[in-house]
Specification:
Structural class: alpha/beta
Number of helices: 8
Low-confidence stretches: 1-7, 121-144, 212-218
Shape: globular
Number of strands: 5
CATH topology of the largest domain: Rossmann fold
Largest sheet: 5 strands, parallel
CATH architecture of the largest domain: 3-Layer(aba) Sandwich
Strand order of the largest sheet: 2-3-4-1-5
Helix content: 40-55%
Strand content: 5-15%
CATH class of the largest domain: Alpha Beta
Distance between the termini: 28 Å
Length: about 220
């Protein structure tokens, strides 16, 4: 039996629109335990970070998301204290940070996260991909949406990974889907692939897996 391990990718959401951030975060709650962390005072302190470190060390089998909004409201010492955990989180823990300007965070924090910039076009792409997946059980239709850049394609692939990660315990196809999407994501990042075609290939793979599953039950 092949064991398939999924790595949590820390995310940094960048937007000056708090509603857009909340809408995006809502999509990450699927199939996980979700915790929104707020500082005791006006900014995140070393004490706050130590509490998070202590809590995440306690083993729990279900995937946990920790959302730290407005993380730029944290002391330099607190950001430095968070670096080790951000780089090597427990296997079933994902951190989600938000800010209105990445330049308000330490470069070492930036280097350890996947940046999600919420722009108008990107938000539409994410909603399209998420709608396509969430409203299907046995078959996944291909809904066309335009992708013009590598970053948008990369982020859509990430959303697909997050979604199927939440179904690992209930859907036997999920590990295979995640493995294929991770492969496409790596190819997209390391080669000059067409962003639209890369996402389309991933969606076609998913569609085939669930079409076969559907036909096998007939």
């Amino acid at each position: 039996m092949i064991e398939f391990k999924v790595y949590m990718i820390p995310l940094l959401i960048i937007s000056n629109d708090s509603k857009s951030i909340q809408d995006y975060v809502e999509k990450l709650k699927v199939g996980t335990l979700f915790f929104e962390i707020t500082p005791v005072t006006k900014e995140y302190s070393i004490s706050d970070i130590k509490s998070i470190i202590k809590e995440t060390k306690v083993f729990y089998p279900k995937i946990r998301n920790y959302f730290l909004p407005d993380f730029h409201l944290s002391s330099i010492a607190a950001q430095n204290s968070f670096l080790k955990l951000l780089e090597e989180p427990p296997s079933n823990v994902q951190f989600i940070l938000s800010t209105d300007n990445k330049n308000r965070l330490l470069p070492t924090i930036i280097s350890r996260v996947k940046i999600i910039k919420l722009t108008g076009n990107y938000s539409q792409n994410v909603v399209g991909a998420q709608f396509m997946i969430n409203h299907t059980t046995t078959k996944i239709p291909l809904i066309p949406f335009k992708i013009t850049d590598k970053e948008s394609a990369n982020n859509i692939l990430l959303q697909i990974i997050i979604f199927f990660r939440g179904k690992l315990k209930t859907d036997k196809n999920s590990p295979v889907v995640i493995k294929e999407i991770l492969r496409l994501k790596r190819l997209l990042e390391s080669n000059n692939l067409n962003p639209q075609l890369t996402v389309d290939q991933g969606l076609i793979f998913i569609w085939k897996k669930y079409k076969i599953k559907f036909e096998d039950r007939r």
